């Protein structure tokens, strides 16, 4: 039998709340420990217990991180999805199942391997049998794939965080699973792992935790939040790390944390903190952004700094709360009524989650406006590789804040909203300073902050706001580009598509010989380099995980009209992290001028 | 030339005034603005250390008309408490003075009002309560009494939301009701509120001269004048005036010691009212309501509660004044962090 080394996908079907997440992470971490390039995706239900969960592990020496086209090994543990999981398997799939569920696996065309997992678990701990049963498939996979004992031991220790009893019990179960597989199965299943040189600096971390740490290193002063999947773990990570990283000398906290009554209040607190001169931040998902929109407009118009992280989930409305999508981009860019435009920072890696975590505060204070961090469930809640976070290379930028009478005196004809420097960014004074106090307001105001309905004053104010945000274009994180010499086809993408682009690129090249340039947009308003990229390529595809092509829409609105004829949208989302083949096919169809209904 | 009168920190009253009002002539809210100016001046509060906060509505426009040397924020409808919360967290040393209306507080912003009380946000929360939406031409608000009738339109048939009852039930440590036409009482109560640590709610009946100052309106000037039931007369003795120099009143009185060392003296008129008894306070409101009366005075007082910022254990320095070294962990801290993930 041919053997695929470090090139396969495992799909593990379990019920939520049975402890399977621990088992799955142990598998993921043990392979990572061996240096196998590996990624894990958790497809979980939006309730606490009982509903079906799938965990997809992809091992790929090529470094592909999206779920592959095929499932090579299917583990079935959940009776509710059992028949469908078994039926869906392609011929030749290895199906590992828990025999104690007592449901049939009638697939003569697959390799079916059974193990009485619950019974064996019961024999070592009757009370915890349901949870421990999961460790038997870990043992089974460890044996069949060739995962080293030392890697398993290290992953188990990490997972149970030094709890001796749990470590011992779970290691015993894994070991029994190994023994059973060796004694009862033909373990030459055609897929295996092989150790690779692991960069000792690398580790796996969720995007939400990386962003949280970034916020802490960015000097966050006030976190207000309202629980919502998939952003809660961002707030909870901040809460978890604050005492360790941000305690003052007197033992007091240097960041206030408030669990707000709703997203409206969370946004209001961010605006209040920014108004008072602090670094306020909240995190949420699409439904929260809808609710926060009123305050987002106030912050834009009254020019108050603040940061909001949106970890995108599937909309519209409540949508699919635990699935991933890039569908809030337009909402963020133009949130709230009236003409608005907001700065959006778009990380594509956990390193950028960290970097944009701190940088967002600098940008917000620099431009005296609300800045969004735009992540999604895939990036935020799954674990990705980093070689370690880099320390900020710039000091905190607190923006144009006048703190003394001398500074105030140095400005001729000061007014809160007067464009002294010609960059559209005015100077501000802080409450408590007694320096040129004004009553901030969301109503029309003149350059001194005084209420005004004067047509010229209004028009000048909104024109300056436009100029201010436009001025940020080339100062925000520049796109990451990889340009072919022959500039035929370019792909523009952003955010978590980063995890799939390499595989898409390889599929395009291997199937058609097409060599594409890529351009990953990392901020809105988009950098002028994006325009150059579009101008220099014959055909440009904007690739995104949504239905309507939201970045495409923004580009179409803002680009010179002569660049539009060769710009195409490829957008698709079904809630599952993107599979490379689906997008590669759509790109090819789009470029060949055909359109076809997508069936993923 | 007459010498200009100065307060205890040597500032003239002019340092506490604001711009001219654009409200209807005779509006109760303007009288409240004058009381705010008077109270802040007489208390000797440094004007720039006050933060004026408001939502949207006639009442919420008023921060433009007082304390011109203070920064302020006229926020969005019903959301003043959350903005105040964020500001308070990063600068706990400011004195937050919130002005809101009955539409702002009892309808669109009732959730934020409730949660600000629940957290015991350290602020004074004044409700300028006229029972109508003035800026949109006089629709009833949720606080208007059943049976009350504004100048035009049908009699209100819905039961009112009583914000004092609500505040007491939520455990607010300072709950008072007053009337914009009772300048002496309102001034004393506001001064006491400014001397209190924690949430202080003052619900001020403030007639709308344009839409509801007719005699059938329970919130008209004449109606309130004729149907106000004062729990006690109130007298405020500031911390900088030795209390032994103040004349002791005849008859019964009760002194309440406030956070900054000032005293609120309650001189009992009729039945004893014990402001530390929440049930008695609720009963007083309930009885007045049954008789279509307005009960005024200090309804409830409890000084023992921790404020929101105290509850969070914030460092002594207001967060807004922290240095870069205090805000950004060191390079070494990041290296150790990376290392801990690698292990």
Give a written overview of the molecule.
The complex is a heterodimer of chains A (600) and B (343). Chain A is an alpha/beta fold and 600 residues long. Chain A contains 19 helices and 26 strands. Helix content of chain A is 38%, strand content 20%. In chain A, strand 10 (222-225), helix 8 and strand 11 form a beta-alpha-beta unit. In chain A, helix 3 crosses helix 6, helix 4 (129-145) packs across helix 6 (164-184) and helix 7 crosses helix 8 (232-245). In chain A, 55% of the residues are buried. Chain B is an alpha/beta fold. Chain B has twelve helices and 13 strands. In chain B, strands 2-1-3-4-8-7-13-9 form an eight-stranded mixed beta sheet, sandwiched between helices. In chain B, strands 10-12-11 form a three-stranded antiparallel beta sheet. Classes of the chains: A alpha/beta (600), B alpha/beta (343). Chains A and B meet through helix 7, strand 11, helix 9, helix 10 and strand 20 of A and strand 2, helix 3, helix 5, helix 11 and helix 12 of B.
Percent of sequence in beta strands of chain B: 15-25%
- Name the poorly predicted regions of chain B: none
Rg estimate of chain A, integer Å: 26 Å
The tally of domains of chain A stands at 4
In angstroms, what is the radius of gyration of chain B?
21 Å
**If strands are numbered along the chain, what order do they take across the biggest sheet of chain B?**
2-1-3-4-8-7-13-9
Count of discrete alpha- or pi-helical segments spanning 4 or more residues of chain B = 12
Sheet with the most strands, sense and barrel status of chain A: 8 strands, mixed
CATH architecture descriptor text of the largest domain in chain A: 3-Layer(aba) Sandwich
Shape of chain B: globular
Q: Biggest β-sheet of chain B, characterized?
A: 8 strands, mixed
């Amino acid at each position: 039998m041919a053997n695929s080394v470090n090139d396969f996908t495992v799909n593990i079907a379990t019920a939520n709340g049975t402890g399977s997440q621990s088992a799955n992470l142990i598998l993921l971490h043990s392979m990572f420990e061996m240096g196998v390039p590996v990624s894990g995706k958790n497809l979980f239900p939006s309730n606490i217990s009982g509903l079906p969960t799938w965990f997809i592990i992809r091992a790929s020496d090529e470094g592909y991180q999206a779920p592959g086209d095929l499932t090579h090994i299917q583990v079935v543990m959940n009776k509710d999805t059992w028949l469908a999981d078994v039926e869906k398997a392609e011929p030749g799939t290895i199906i590992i199942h828990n025999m104690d569920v007592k449901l049939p696996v009638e697939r003569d065309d697959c390799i079916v391997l059974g193990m009485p997992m619950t019974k064996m678990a019961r024999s070592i701990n009757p009370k915890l049998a349901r949870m421990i049963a999961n460790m038997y498939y870990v043992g089974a996979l460890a044996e069949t794939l060739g995962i080293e004992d030392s890697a398993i031991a290290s992953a188990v220790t990490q997972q149970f965080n030094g709890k001796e009893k749990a470590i011992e019990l779970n290691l015993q179960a894994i070991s029994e699973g190994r023994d059973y597989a060796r004694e009862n199965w033909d373990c030459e299943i055609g897929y295996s792992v092989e150790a690779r040189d692991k960069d000792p600096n690398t580790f796996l971390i969720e995007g939400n935790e990386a962003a949280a740490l970034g916020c802490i290193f960015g000097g966050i002063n006030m976190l207000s939040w309202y629980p919502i999947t998939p952003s809660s773990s961002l707030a909870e990570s901040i809460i978890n790390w604050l005492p360790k990283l941000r305690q003052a000398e007197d033992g007091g906290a240097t960041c206030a944390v408030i669990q707000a009554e709703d997203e409206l209040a969370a946004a209001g607190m961010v605006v209040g903190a920014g108004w008072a001169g602090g670094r306020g931040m909240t995190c949420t998902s699409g439904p929260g952004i809808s609710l926060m929109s009123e305050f987002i407009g106030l912050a834009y118009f009254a020019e108050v700094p603040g940061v909001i992280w949106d970890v995108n989930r599937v909309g519209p409305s409540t949508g699919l709360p635990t699935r991933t999508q890039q569908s809030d981009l337009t909402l963020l860019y133009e949130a709230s009524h009236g003409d608005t435009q907001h700065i959006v920072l778009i990380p594509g890696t956990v390193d950028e989650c960290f970097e944009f975590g701190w940088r967002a505060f600098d940008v917000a204070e620099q431009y005296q406006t609300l800045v969004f961090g735009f992540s999604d469930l895939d990036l935020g809640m799954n674990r990705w590789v980093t070689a370690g976070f880099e320390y900020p290379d710039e000091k905190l930028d607190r923006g144009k804040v006048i703190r003394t009478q001398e500074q105030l005196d140095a400005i001729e004809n000061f007014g809160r909203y007067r464009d002294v420097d010609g960059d559209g960014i005015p100077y501000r004074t802080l409450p408590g300073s007694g320096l040129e106090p004004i009553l901030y307001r969301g109503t029309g105001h003149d350059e001194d902050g005084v209420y005004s309905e004067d047509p010229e004053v209004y028009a000048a104010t909104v024109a300056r706001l436009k100029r201010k945000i436009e001025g940020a274009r080339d100062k925000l994180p520049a796109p990451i580009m990889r340009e072919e010499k022959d500039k035929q086809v370019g792909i523009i993408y952003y955010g978590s598509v980063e995890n799939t682009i390499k595989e898409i690129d390889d599929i395009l090249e291997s199937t058609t010989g097409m060599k594409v340039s890529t351009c990953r947009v990392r901020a809105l308003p988009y950098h002028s380099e994006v325009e150059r990229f579009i101008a220099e390529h014959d055909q440009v595809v904007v690739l995104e995980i949504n239905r309507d092509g939201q970045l495409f829409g923004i580009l179409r609105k803002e680009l010179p009209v002569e660049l539009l004829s060769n710009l195409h949208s490829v957008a698709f989302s079904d809630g599952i992290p993107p599979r490379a083949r689906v997008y590669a096919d759509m790109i090819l169809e789009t470029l060949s001028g055909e359109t076809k209904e997508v069936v993923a | 030339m007459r010498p200009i009168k100065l307060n205890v920190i040597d500032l003239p009253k002019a340092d506490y005034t604001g711009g001219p009002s654009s409200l209807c002539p005779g509006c109760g809210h303007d009288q409240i603005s004058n009381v705010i100016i008077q109270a802040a001046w007489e208390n000797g509060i440094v004007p720039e250390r006050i933060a004026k906060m408001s939502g949207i509505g006639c009442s919420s426009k008023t921060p433009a008309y007082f304390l011109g040397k203070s920064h302020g924020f006229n926020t969005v409808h019903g959301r003043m408490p959350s903005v105040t919360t964020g500001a308070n967290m990063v600068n706990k040393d400011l004195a937050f003075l919130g002005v809101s209306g009955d539409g702002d507080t009892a309808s669109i912003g009732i959730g934020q009002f409730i949660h600000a009380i629940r957290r015991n946000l350290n602020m004074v929360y004044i409700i300028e309560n006229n029972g109508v939406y003035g800026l949109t031409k006089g629709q009833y608000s949720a606080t208007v009494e059943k049976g009350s009738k504004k100048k035009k339109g049908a009699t209100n048939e819905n039961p009112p939301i009583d914000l004092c009852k609500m505040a007491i039930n939520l455990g607010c440590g300072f709950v008072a009701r007053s009337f914009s036409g009772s300048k002496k009482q309102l001034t004393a109560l506001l001064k006491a509120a400014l001397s209190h640590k924690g949430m202080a709610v003052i619900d001020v009946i403030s007639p709308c001269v344009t839409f509801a100052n007719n005699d059938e309106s329970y919130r008209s000037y004449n109606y309130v004048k004729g149907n106000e039931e004062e729990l006690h007369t109130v007298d405020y003795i500031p911390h900088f005036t030795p209390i032994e120099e103040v004349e002791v009143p005849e008859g019964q009185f009760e002194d309440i010691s406030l956070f900054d060392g000032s005293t609120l003296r309650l001189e009992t008129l009729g039945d004893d009212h014990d402001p530390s008894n929440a049930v008695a306070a609720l009963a007083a409101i309930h009885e007045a309501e049954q008789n279509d009366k307005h009960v005024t005075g200090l309804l409830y007082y409890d000084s023992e509660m921790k404020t929101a910022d105290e509850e969070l254990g914030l460092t002594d320095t207001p967060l807004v004044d922290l240095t870069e070294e205090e805000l950004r962990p060191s390079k070494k801290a990041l290296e150790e962090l990376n290392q801990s993930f690698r292990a």
